[in-house]
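This section describes the prediction task in plain terms. A model, or a person checking by hand, is given the sequence of a single protein chain and must write out its three-dimensional structure as a string of tokens. No templates, partner chains or ligands are provided. The sample shown here is typical of the held-out split.
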Amino acid sequence: MDNIIKGHAAIMDRYDPEKTKGLVVDEWGNWFNVEPGTNPGFLYQQNTMRDAITAAIHLNIFNQHADRVKAANLAQMINVLQSVILTRDDKIVLTPTFHVFRMFRVHQEATLLNLDLRCEDYIFGNKKIPAISASASVDKDGKVHISLANLNPNKSITITCPLIGNSFKNITGEVLTASQMNSYNSFESPETVKPAVFKGFSLKDGILSITMPSKSVVVFELTK
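The expected answer:
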């Protein structure tokens, strides 16, 4: 997704250097095989911690390209592909993707903060990607929010963040993770994957040190 947006943005920058036109990402999300026993045409699939990581990656990318991306639509909202809600009769389940969307809502109507992210790679076979995804913003009240995702399903990763030019009196965090990458919420166990208070960080001499659990999404709020 990052490469797709960069490619389109480069063309748009040539003909619209003042960025008067926005870029719309029509649909995004994971597309897996349908759940056994369901109608193949309905595209009903379960939603796991893997989908939560995918959601965090995409939302961070869209944040990073806020100068161009003005709308980005999750493929479907209910019961189809990477949904935020699953329903059955009179029951509903909030998916891991739902929780990521709720956690990231703090970036709405905020101002993007530039990040210089340097991290190790997650390597699988002969392929590799940066192990950490991130974006940050400041809202109208001066609160800074940092959203992070550890893409490595097998390893916790510690990163450091210098808080330059500001003294923050209060830092809180929320984490979404699970025992397995394919952990999910079912109608029988609807809270297998849910957010919790995150305490895996410390602040000393203006340096925020964060230990990201494997396969996790963390959102921080920093207030003065």
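For orientation: Residues 49-64 form the longest helix (16 residues).
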